[in-house]
Known about the structure:
The chain is α+β, with helices and mostly antiparallel strands. It is built from five helices and six strands; from the N terminus they run E-E-H-E-H-E-H-E-H-E-H. It has a four-stranded mixed sheet. Strands 3-6 form a two-stranded antiparallel sheet.
Amino acid sequence: AGEGTNTPLDLDEFDNTYKHLLLWDEDKQQLVGAYRLGIGEEIYAKHGVDGFYANTLFRYNKNKAGSVLPHAIELGRSFVANDYQREALPLMLLIKGLMFSVVKYPNCRYLVGPVSISNWYPDFYKSMMVHYALELHNAPELADLVQATTPFTPNTFRCELDALLSKKSDT
Length: 171
């Protein structure tokens, strides 16, 4: 859907050290979806911060990373195949698989990783999504863990996003 490499095979050097959560349709004998999981304690012990895929996109604060990344699972490279995107079950099963992964690695306290917002969305909508995440779902104690190498520049067309996203109604 306009994301990733848009090639038939999307591999990189991180695929060799990351686990892969696969969702398989037994009846049709085809791949339904997947998530790539980087087990933080394994990656950090062998490669440090440089072993994490997100380190290619962001700058980690190396002083703080050692207290977070070994206790994290880095998520990435997720997808649901086109034939299954109109169904809720594949996404729910992938999320269930993520929950089982967290249980399997009891040292995991965090799920981290980059999130793509499609360029198909207008700038205003992308700006709303970023604003919403930063204002309502931010972890201030982790705010200085990473910095974007290419920071997002919001374009709200002079609209007050807090008022727009407010649950309160003055009417």
